[in-house]
Design a protein that fits this description.
By secondary structure, the protein is of the alpha+beta class. It is about 20% helix and about 25% strand. The protein has two helices and five strands, in the order βααββββ. A five-stranded mixed sheet has the order 1-5-4-3-2. The chain is globular and about 55 Å long.
Length: about 120
C-alpha cells in the first residue's frame, strides 16, 4: 500500500437527480456526456488547474471552476460547444478518490438536418 493519492482512472458517482437528467437526454447527447465522462475519469488532474490544462480535451469541451475563489471546489465541464454542462466535484481521498457528478444540463439544441443554404 502507498501513502500517496491514487491516480487515474478515478471512480465516478452520480447524484440521483443528475443520473435521471442524463437518462432523459437524447442518444447523441448521452454519447457526448459519456465521452466527457471518459475524459474526466482518465485525467491526471480532475481539477484541470493551470493554463491550457484542458487543451487535451476534445473540441467543444472545456473545464472551468464554478467559482474562481474556490480553486479546489466544483468544476463545470462544458460540452457540445457549450450547449450543455456537467457540474462535478472531486473528493481527493487517499483510499477512494472520486468524482461526483452533481448536475447534468443540456440546452436542447438538436443537430441540423437541413441542407446548407446556397449562397
Amino acid at each position: 500500500m502507498t501513502d500517496g493519492l491514487m491516480g487515474p482512472p478515478w471512480q465516478m458517482d452520480w447524484r440521483l437527480d443528475a443520473l435521471a437528467a442524463f437518462e432523459e437526454l437524447p442518444d447523441h447527447v448521452r454519447e457526448i456526456v459519456l465521452a466527457a465522462r471518459a475524459e474526466l475519469v482518465t485525467a491526471k488532474d480532475p481539477y484541470f488547474r493551470g493554463i491550457e490544462t484542458d487543451a487535451c480535451l476534445p473540441n467543444g469541451m472545456q473545464v472551468t471552476p464554478v467559482r474562481s475563489s474556490d480553486p479546489k471546489g466544483p468544476r463545470a465541464l462544458f460540452f457540445d460547444d457549450e450547449n450543455g454542462w456537467l457540474m462535478y466535484s472531486f473528493a481527493p481521498r487517499i483510499e477512494d478518490p472520486q468524482i461526483i457528478v452533481e448536475q447534468v444540463f443540456w440546452l436542447g439544441v438538436q443537430p441540423s438536418t437541413a441542407p446548407p443554404a446556397e449562397p
